[in-house]
Amino acid sequence: MSSAAAPAADAPAPKGKKKLIIIVLALVLLLVLGGGAAFFLLKKKSADGEEGDGSGDETAQVEKKPKREHKKEDPKHPPVFVALDPFVVNLTDRDTDRYAQIGITLQVEDEKASEEIKAYLPAIRNNILLLLSHKSSEELMAEGGKEKLAEQILREAVLPMGIELEDPDAKEAPAEPGKKRRRRSYDTIDDSPIKAIQFSSFIIQ
Asked: Are the CB atoms for 105 and 81 separated by under 8 Å?
C-alpha cells in the first residue's frame, strides 16, 4: 500500500508547469494585443491627417507656389529701363470715337532681367494692348486712373513669364457648399523682374 501511494505525492509537479505555461501565454498575448493597439492608433492618426484635406472643413487654405529666386535691389546701381514702342488704341467710349496714345517704359531689376524680358516682348505687348483696348477715356482720366492702369499693366506684363501678381480689385469666388475654400497664393513684386511701370507719354483724343 505504501509503494502505491508514493507516486501520488509527486502529482502537484505537472500542475506547477501548467501554471507557468499559462503565465507565459498570457504575457505573449498581452504583447500581441499591445502591438496591435499601437499599430491601430498610428494608422488612425495617419488617416486623420489625410482627412484634413477633405470637404468637411470650411477653413481656407493657401495653395503654395514654389519660391522664385530673386536678386535684392542694390541702391548703388541705378535702375534699368526698357522702353516699349508707343501704343495707339481705340477706346470704348460710346458717344464718340476716341483713342489713346500711350508711351510705356518698364523699370526692370537689372541688365540680365532686361535681356530676359526682350524675349517675351511680343506677348507682353499683346497683353498690354488688350488691356488698353478695353478702357474708356473716363476710366483713364479719372482721379487715380493712371496709377491704377500702371498696376494693371504690370500684372499683365509679367504673366507671359509665368508670374502672377494679385489683383486687389478681383473678388474671390464663394466656396461651394460643403467644400473647402482655397485661397490662391500669388507671386510678390520681389519675384518680378519688372519693378514698376513708367509713362513716357499719355495722350487721349
From this structure: yes
Query: pTM score, two decimals?
Result: 0.61
Going from the C-alpha of 122 to that of each of 96, 119, 129, 160, 194, the distances in angstroms are 30, 8, 11, 10, 16
Q: How many CA atoms lie within 13 A of 22 on its CB side?
A: 6
Match 483713342 to its residue by C-alpha cell: 99
User: Which helix (DSSP H) or strand (DSSP E) does residue 115 occupy?
Assistant: helix 111-118
pLDDT in tens, 101-143: 999 999 998 899 999 899 999 999 999 999 999 999 999 999 9
Segments of 1-130 assigned E as strands: 61-63, 80-83, 87-90, 99-108
Distance in angstroms between the alpha carbons of the first and the last residue of the chain: 137
| Cβ contact 115:77 at 8 Å | no
Q: Please tell me the distance from the alpha carbon of residue 132 to that of residue 123, in angstroms, as a whole number.
A: 14
d(CA 200, CA 150): 12
For residues 77 and 26, what is the distance between their CA atoms, to the nearest angstrom?
Answer: 79
> Could you tell me which of 140, 78, 129, 75 has the C-alpha nearest to residue 107?
78
Q: Which residues pair with 184 in a beta bridge?
A: 63
* Cell 470715337 found at: 97
DSSP summary character for residue 195:
E
- Grid coordinates representing 69? 529666386
